[in-house]
Amino acid sequence: MNINEIILPKINSSLSSSKSNSLDNFLLKNIPHSISIDEPLPYVEAYNHITANFPYSYELSAFNCFCLLFTEYGSGTLTIDNILYTLSPNTAAFIHCSELHKIEIKQSPWNYKVFYIKGDSIPLLYRTFTKGQGNLLELPSESTIHNLIRNLYDSLEKKPEKLYLHSKYILDILLELIIERDRQNNATAPVPNYLRELKHRFDTCYQKNISLDELEKEYHVSKYRICHEFTKYFEAPPIQYLNQKRIEIAKEILLSTDKRIHEIGQLVGYENTNQFIRLFKQQTGITPLSFRKQLASSY
């Protein structure tokens, strides 16, 4: 059965008389799975970028699927297991659609991205995320999860046939959600502002080269302290974190474009192609070219 045939009848029937809330606005985009994909890997069944206005609500249960819902502005509520969650901006909700739950608008307009996902690995990730913690997580503004959500949505829009790329983004998002929840649970003190700024710079301006000496001068903090504190909060020294970020971006470019290896290296900040290949192999165990060939053979 088409996923829209399950969800649309559940949406508040008074929407039919509201132009701003026409049911057509809530049609989910289905992803065809004509290409076989290994069952353990997650995949997107349907998705959309929704803008809802009053009135808007629906209840759903007994649907064998999981839902990821990310609020951008406005707000809604999620009621599940008699617990009411507020879906405010920069929150992520992870829902098992087989459980009775209700979604309802709270502040109009409510803008959110929603992904209905399946795969053998999803139940374990769901249990890990929700165990004793509930279905909602507030995301820091500098979290890399925001970029991962955009990447998944853009990939579904522009490259719906790239199922393995979708799987990578879903796994990245779910694992980052679990890591972020764990980090928040174990945080004994807020991350210093200069470290938040530095991490944001690495996440968004990874092409630019920078040294520890330059960071020491800029932040007026010793480079040894920078390394120690950055590792404490982000589990890797700053330069190592930057290289990891570059390699992750390089993987995405390798999967989604036909650019040459030296071009990709330059795009992520490596003028020296040999250095790029060495660091890529150091982090992944294979060269960029082998990585591309292995993934290409999977399609």
Automatic annotation (TrEMBL):
Keywords: DNA-binding, Transcription, Transcription regulation
InterPro entries tied to this protein: AraC-bd, Homeodomain-like_sf, HTH-like, HTH_AraC, HTH_AraC-typ_CS, Tscrpt_reg_AraC-type_HTH
Protein name per Swiss-Prot or TrEMBL: AraC family transcriptional regulator
Keyword set includes Lipid metabolism: no
GO MF annotation, one: DNA-binding transcription factor activity
PROSITE patterns: HTH_ARAC_FAMILY_1, HTH_ARAC_FAMILY_2
PANTHER family assigned: ARAC-FAMILY TRANSCRIPTIONAL REGULATOR, HTH-TYPE TRANSCRIPTIONAL ACTIVATOR RHAS
Domain HTH araC/xylS-type: 196-294
